[in-house]
Amino acid sequence: MSQGAAGSGAATARRRGNPLALAVLAQLGDKPMHPYEIARVLKDGRKDESVKLNYGSLYSVITALARDGFIEPAGTEQDGNRPQRTVYRLTDTGRDEVDDWMRSLLGAPVKEFPQFLAALSFMQVLAPDDAAALLRTRLVALRVAVRRLEDDVERRVEAVPAPFTAETEYELALLLAELRYTEALVRRLGDGTLRGLDEWRARASDGAASSS
User: Fold this and answer.
1) Distance of alpha carbon 171 from alpha carbon 151, whole angstroms
2) Of 98, 113, 120, residue with least CA distance to 28
């Protein structure tokens, strides 16, 4: 593979690792907008709950997308005495990119690395009782989050077409799965049925003794 091809592949991987870039391309697929309008539309549609949004990152993403030819300036707008704002539009290359990106995201599962997964992987560095107490605290927060999302889905189901609430329904499904798993894990820690619990307790006791 040539250095140019390798560099292009790395750039694509970096860009496609940033959901905010996808959000910008998707919004500009509807109509040309300036960055402030893109941010407003994302917030109004509550897409900022799915994509991390801040103005510094937004302008950096827009600069990179324009540099790579996926979007281009389409003019300027001015609101009262405010400075002029550059309006951007999607290029044909950008339209192909967002189409290909979406097909890849929807059609092919990828390995993700949630922080809770990492915490579970190294849970044994704590004593079992400490881990159980922390997980019980997590359960309280999970139950609150589940109730909030259930209420949100119920309110929106009649007003918003399903494709526009899919991310909320997916988030709720993940939270419910995490809640069920964490409840079961806490239960097994409490009743002693977690496989390897005795060895874990012994290791934690040895570690506490050696550090004292």
Assistant:
1) 13
2) 98
